[in-house]
Give the backbone structure.
Amino acid sequence: MRIRAGFSLTYECSQPTPMLLVLEIHPSRRVDLLTEQVIGFDRPIEARGYIDAFGNACTRIEAPAGLTTISTSFEIYDTGKSDVVLPNAVQHDIKELPDEVLRFLLGSRYCDTDRLGDLAWANFGNTTPGWTRVQAICNFVHDHIAFDYQAANPLRTAYGAFEDRAGVCRDFAHLAISLCRCMNIPARYCTGYLGDIGVPPVPDPMDFSAWFEAYLSGHWFTFDARHNRPRIGRILMATGCDATDVALSTSFGSSRLAGFEVVTEEIPAEHLLATL
């Protein structure tokens, strides 16, 4: 299938403000691009790209004082297949894990594993290690947290999500990641586009989405505790230990998000035929 995606974000700064942006699709998906994905600015801005320690494509800018709109629009190929499900995927002993995976066992800014270890072992210690255990964690988180845009809180940790029992997709991901790490399963945070493709559309405005990946059988597999079902058309933007590492923007000074619009939609087959 062919997917159209993009965004328009407007920031207001009181003075020139350095910013880090994680707004490009992940380098692993660039091969699927059908049109260029160029990050544009509505004002003259010097931008410099780099690849961070997690392999994400990032951008450095200095936003001028006033309003600045950052945008992109692109089309990308997708197989149309849902997330891979491999029920027999196994959990590795820690001694078998690659060195670069070990950091995804540790606590991080939003994944406060030290406060969730007893809970994790009490609830999942008797589950079958591997895919079954990760799915049990997803089921628990999905049932425990109520999705509510009004409950969004950028300061909420995984333990906070467990206590509040309400939040947005990042809270589902943080809690599931933390519980996996407590059970010695490497887990990393993912952010990207996820449109209402193959599912009934929801009335909420389109947004970026958060999910996570667990390391099983030598591979990273996608899990989504919020939706808790395989989905079609994910477009990965970035991975990290938690939301800190993949924030859309990190401002080194005062800034306000003044405008926010995200588009993710399948291009209908009849439209593709009409353009041939």
Summary: The helical segments are 117-124, 131-144, 158-164, 169-182, 269-275. The radius of gyration is 19 Å. The chain has five helices and 14 strands. Residues 151 and 167 are 5 Å apart (CA to CA).
